[in-house]
Specification:
Layout lengths: L3 E4 L4 E2 L2 E7 L38 E2 L1 H5 L5 H4 L17 H7 L10 E4 L5 E4 L30 E2 L2 E2 L19 E3 L2 E4 L6 E7 L4 E6 L22 H4 E2 L10 E6 L6 H6 L10 E8 L2 E9 L3 E3 L7 E3 L12 E5 L2 E5 L3 E4 L4 E4 L5 H44 L2 H9 L3 H6 L1 E2 L2 H7 L8 E5 L2 E7 L5 E7 L4 H16 L8 E5 L6 E5 L6 H6 L10 H21 L4 E2 L8 E3 L5 E3 L6 E2 L7 E2 L11 H6 L1 E2 L1 H17 L4 E3 L5 E3 H10 L9 H6 L2 H14 L10 H14 L5 H8 L14 H13 L17 H8 L5
Helix pairs in contact: 7-10, 12-14, 12-18, 14-17, 17-18
Amino acid sequence: MASLLLVMEGGGICNGMGCCTVTFPVAFRGFRVTIVKNNETVPQPFANITIKAFLSFRPYIFSIADLLSDKINASTVGASSAAYLSTVITDKPNCAKARSDDKTRYACGSSNCENVANGGYYCTCSGSSDDGNPYILDDCKQEYNHTPKMNCSRSCGSTNVPFPFGFEPGCYATRRFQLNCASNRTLIGRPPAKYEVTNISLDDGLLYVNKLSEFEDANMNYLSIYYGGSGYFGQQLVYGLDKSDLSEEFGVWRWSAANLTCESAKKDRAYACRSANSECIGVTHGKLYIGYRCKCSPGFEGNPYVENGCTDIDECLIPNNCNGTCYNLKGSFRCCPHDMFFDPVEKQCTPDKRQNLVLGVSTGIGSGFGVLALALGAIILMRRLKRGAQRKIRRAFFRKNRGLLLEQLISSTSESVTHSTRIFSMEELEKATNNFDPTRVLGHGGHGTVYKGILSDQRVVAIKKSKMVEQSEIDQFVNEVSILSQIIHRNVVKLFGCCLESEVPLLVYEFISNGTLHDVLHGDPDAKCLLTWDDRIRVALEAAGALAYLHSSAAMPIFHRDVKSANILLDDTFTTKVSDFGASRSISIDQTHVVTIVQGTFGYLDPEYYYTGQLTEKSDVYSFGVILVELLTRKKPIFLNSLGEQQNLCHYFLGRLKDETVMDIIDSQVVEEASQSEIDEMASVAAMCLRTRGGQRPKMKEVELRLQLLRARRRPPRRHEQELQRHGETKPLLSTPIKSRSTSVAMAKNVELGIVADNPPSRTLTRCYSMEQEMAASSEFPR
């Protein structure tokens, strides 16, 4: 029955060590192969040992590479379409015997039973319910796959295989439509396959097949083999598989999607006609009803079994299909005679009125030129009228915005200022801001919105647009322009000009890139501030110099009236620029104060000015003192304390100063970079500025001088002091009290008396430098 040939290792015919062959008849019902090791007293696991077994219908040429590779090449092992295994139950000779002898051992249950020629039987699912396991009770079920998976093989050799047919699982509708591709031939039926499919017609519902003459011993390359269950055709799919009216060698089979009527199929969720432009057709053979199939509707072509598979046919592309003018329609076409055209509204051919064509064309051309000339004239006239109207509107806005007054104010200033300050047109500013694009907004000030713009000369500017058009707001705008046009100072924002041709007046001044001091100090409280202690002293000094210039050195004294960190801008080198003069007031030189409506920002507002309404230069001094405290503590003028309550920074700072605990609220970065005397000096200047009575506060010129002296004394720590600190021989400032009690008490008394001590109170002098030294130091810091 079988012969075992042992062969030598090293390749060649399978007749030595490493390869053995067992030969048995094709009709042999079953066999078992056991592989054991000889001369082994203790069983050893077959770890790292490759064992491969396969069926072949011709002698196999052994190669060690076959053991080392993941796959065995079908061309070398001689696999063929006849090399197959099928599952057969052999405890009973046939289905009838199995059903009658012992129903408890009968395997098929509610499924179909098929006899095997050599004895035994196997089970299949019946009818259209061909999916499922026929060996499990009630597991046969109909599962129709409407959507094939991607990248399915759709051809085998020269045969195209459209859906619902397919090779791989997921590529066919049900297993009844499964085909096999072997050696570039499309096979149909349960192995061993007897028929080859040469063509599949979806429109006609036909399979063109050839009957295989013999089991050829050819090289097979299987793309998909799946023989489980009832994956064969028979009369479930095609009609005429074993009918006498078909040739033994060649046949044409009719097939159906399911054995249902069209009326029943349309109610079934497994209805196969998925395309919107498809229809159901019954399949019959003589008087026998086989089932239904799908076909694209007239005027459409494609695959009716998939979504949107049927597409419109352009009948106008078919040669000799129309002797007139062809118009393609969805699902059909219209052929109109040459003297007619198709009307899509009426959906019919309409006579083409081409009479007097030459006259109509000439009339149309003449009319066209006339209309064109009339339109051009109207456009030119409208533009002139529009320009005239715009001039009137802009002139009206110019007068409303106090343009005549502003021209007089600008022209009355010095010639250098006149050359640098100009009145811009609205068109120029619209172009500079891209029509005031919201993305160009830099911020919202107390008196308007600020946009970033680029002028025609490539200068980057800030354009301030007032919020309101009330007369009081216009007066503030004119006031700001007139004030800025008189100021020439490196630490005051530079005015380029203004625009009065809109309902809302606009102000154009230099663009400051680094934002406001408020943003730099309070942007991210957890991050290290960009301003070092030296930068903070310089910013305070430059702001004080600008305010001192406004109070005493300008042509007419100017009170800012809204001094705050948000109105102190920083350019790309952190140079200070005082801005926002919308609330400022100019007074004559012989005046010391002026009574006004109280304006300002809460937290910076001078309490004396708030209660009396009398605006003096000392009001700006108080607000500047708040900025000094901000620079020292890096806290906002109104902040939340540890209890979550709002706290006024000035009161909080003065209270800490009086309790000798001011170092607890100083910014840690300042403590690290500044000396104790420098912190005391800055705190002392701030306390003087924050006195309740304006008469007890210093002038801005005095504040500027004190800050100049502080900056002059500022020096980096000596090298040996850095080495001592690095080795821990000196204690950090935070671990030591601000001063001895006697020193702190003396400092507090000096603050009350208006005396600021730079050295311990044992000194009797109120300052460390002579008048000559102060003048020499101040000369090093030009404004």
